[in-house]
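FAQ: What does the model actually see?

It sees only this:
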Amino acid sequence: MRALGGALMTEPASAADPGCATDPDRPVEAADTPVLSVDGLHRRLGGRVVLDGVSLEVPPGRIVGLLGPNGAGKTTLLRIVFGVLEAERGTVSWAGRPATAAARRSWGYLPQERGLYRDMRVGDHLRWLARLHGLALDAAARRVSSLLERLGLADRSGDDIKRLSGGLAQRVQLAAAMVHGPQLLALDEPFAGLDPAGVAFLSRLALDHVAAGGNLLLSSHQLDVVEDLCDDIVLVQRGRVVLQGRLDELKRSSTARFLRVDGEVDPAWLDGRGRHRRAPGAGRGCV
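And it is asked to produce this:
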């Protein structure tokens, strides 16, 4: 049986732990040399083109945001990266070499669809996943105890997953992606359904992961969260990359600036086509 969990680098599972396998494909990272490279991926599903030549890179020590509306192809791309689906054309490389099964085992994946066994207890589930990743029994117990403490779940270890709230279940799902100290962590729509406190909590974990030397690929359609968190972005629309680069450079190169103001207005301020009318006595450019 195959596990698709991973671990944040804030406290990586030690190779010195019995049963914790080392990765023969661990990259030696040079500055700005991508650890993950995706080149020209093509994929059809049900006769529809889902990915049409998508390419991206994840440089070391940076958070890369994979942006796009629902249906743009983000989840299909991640599934190909992790070997769940096969690409019709294109390559996935790790440290300059084709990504192998051994390399992928050193990655962590938080899928958009939650995959927890709801009838299992939190601690039992996570220790089982740690064992699937190759940790010895005592090492798995230590690792899970540490993760539960860090995620604020120490008092929930004996609870059935089905009895947890949505936010707490999301934390357990994240812990399931944190049991083996992955070099690369990919999060697919991790903020969906979270309240602002949950978003802030997960954002801090992502920043800690990168600060500790990890690499992170974040898929989301929530532009405000991505702008606050990511260093680089890849914008996908209908299976194609339409914008890509360092976020700060993309901002500087854009001459367009927008100010959005949310509030209630008197309907009399709008004309029949939904556009604002200038207030009496207001100068040009004013409302």
